[in-house]
Every structure is written in structure tokens, then in C-alpha cells.
Amino acid sequence: MKQTVEDHTIFSIGLSIVKKKEEEEKGHFYICDNFNFLTLKQGKFTIDSSTGEFLVKHKFSFDRLFVDGIPFLPPSSKQQQQPSTLVDVWKGIMQLMARRDIPLVIHHGLFDLMYLYHSFIGPLPKTLSGFLKEISNHFPSGIYDTKFLVEQGDDHQASFLGYVFAKYDRLRQNRFDDKSTEAKPYFEIDVQAPIQLEQTKKNKKTEEENDDDRPTKRQDVRKEPYCHDPHSKLHDIQIILDHQMGPSIYPQVYSSSLDKDEPKTDTRLEGAHASHFDAYMTGFTFCYLSHTMDPIELKNYKNKVKIRGMHVPLTFPLK
């Protein structure tokens, strides 16, 4: 894993910042700002052909990457170092998280932690124990892995992010209209409009004008949630949930507001493979779990990260 991270690079980083508003009688309310950093590592890096095919298939533009990507050099780079805005930004974010006791929330994110450390903090430690200690030092408020949290429950049938998000959104919706209880409260997340550079707006408009056959946001999400066969309805998350939970009486749009005055499609969230949408789904999942899990139990699961194929989590030392 260490060698893979050092040879490859990240093309985009999704970050969702979720802040709780004052509680109201109807439920709990949050504000969410989503950020997507298009990142361009300077110098050489490796990309697998399968990764490139996947990204292009899901509308990732390599042209835009090399034109608009934020240049950065990992702190461990042997090339001549220049001031890196992106590295400074992430150092500032981590310092703010530590100062305000804000935890980092990931979903099956061991690789994410390794890429984050290698790209913006320093060379990956040579030993696992060294890596665990360094991550704990840089995120003293703790780490929560929503995949691990979900799998601690008795009723989980799958724990991949798209399924968990869609299921929890339905359960949350069912508490609308005075069905909220203290044990199972209703909550909403108000997704703020994105901040876009003027050049980005122009590029997006040009892409939309030149692609009349581009599928809608809803089609993007439903078409290939996690199956390689785009024509198989048997692997559509919403159809699976209809079978498991019964049809929902609420519109299944990827927004957390059920206000009748809200638009039925949310243009503030991109397709299901956008990095900031993954971040949003992870934040949403943690909000749901924070209201449904026992607080002591949730605290006991801090700094425990899921490892593929293993029942025992990777445990980071607590600060």
C-alpha cells in the first residue's frame, strides 16, 4: 500500500464541512459546505489504464485537470520545493480541526489517510506503528470510519457508501411530518451553493452546450451505482431498497430537504462518483449514526478503521 501511494497521485479531493444549527422542535438541522479540489501533482506520477477508463466514463476531464488543476508537490518530493498553496491549506484545516475539536470522518478510508499524509504532511513512515502514531498526532480530535460503524449494527445488509446513504436517507425521510422521536430523530442538511471560479463556470457551460446527450443528475446516480453492468436493474440501489423496505412515499432525490418548496433535483450535488459527493454521503451517514447509536458506544469506536477482509479494525492510538 505504501508503494502504491508513493507511485500514484490524487486528482481530486472531496471535503464536506458539516455544522450543526440550533435545535428546533421538528428535528436537528445542519449546514453543509462541499468543496472539490482538482489537484495536479507536479513531476512524474503513475496512472493505471483501468483507473483512467473509469474516470473518463464518469465524465472526469483530463484536459481540465492539466489546465485548472491546483499544482502541488508532496512534502516528501525530492524536486526543488516551492511554496504550495494546497499544502498550506490542508495544514491550516488540520490545525483548525485540532483547535476546535473537530473529528475527521471517512468511509473505508485507510488509503485516503495514506494519500492525505503523503501528499500534504510528509513522507509516509516506514513502519505501521509510526504511521498510526503520526495520524493520531495530526488528527487529535479523532477519526470515525462510517463503514466500520455501520458494520457494528445488527441490521446492516451492505456497507458500501452508496447503499448506506440511500438507506439512511429513506429511514430519515420516514420520520418527517411529526414522526420524529428522541431515539430516532428527523434531521436535515442544508447544502450550500458551491463557490465556483469564473473560468470553471465558463468551462462547465461549454461542456453542457457541447453535450446534448449528457444524462441527467438522477440518471447519473441510478445508472451505475456499483455494478459494472449498466443495464442491470437488479443492481439498482433504489430498486433493492424498494424490495427491502417497500416503496418510499417521498421523492428519492439526493438532497436531505423534504421541504415542498425545494426543487426536486439538487444541482448543488454532482454525480455519485464525484469526490465531494462521496464526502457529503459520508458526512450525512455520520449525522445519521450520531443520532441513532449509543453515544458511549460511538465514542468507543473512535480511531477504529475498517480493513478490507478483516473483522478486527486498524486502531489508532487515542490522544
From TrEMBL:
UniProt xrefs under InterPro entries: CAF1_poly(A)_ribonucleases (IPR051181), RNase_CAF1 (IPR006941), RNaseH-like_sf (IPR012337), RNaseH_sf (IPR036397)
Top-level lineage group: Eukaryota
Gene3D superfamilies with a match to the protein in the record: Ribonuclease H-like superfamily/Ribonuclease H
Region Disordered, annotated ranges: 197-228
Bias kind Basic and acidic residues: ranges: 199-228
GO MF terms held by the record: 3'-5'-RNA exonuclease activity; snRNA binding
Family to which the UniProt record says this protein belongs: Belongs to the CAF1 family.
Protein name: Uncharacterized protein
Biological classification of the source: Eukaryota, Fungi, Fungi incertae sedis, Mucoromycota, Mucoromycotina
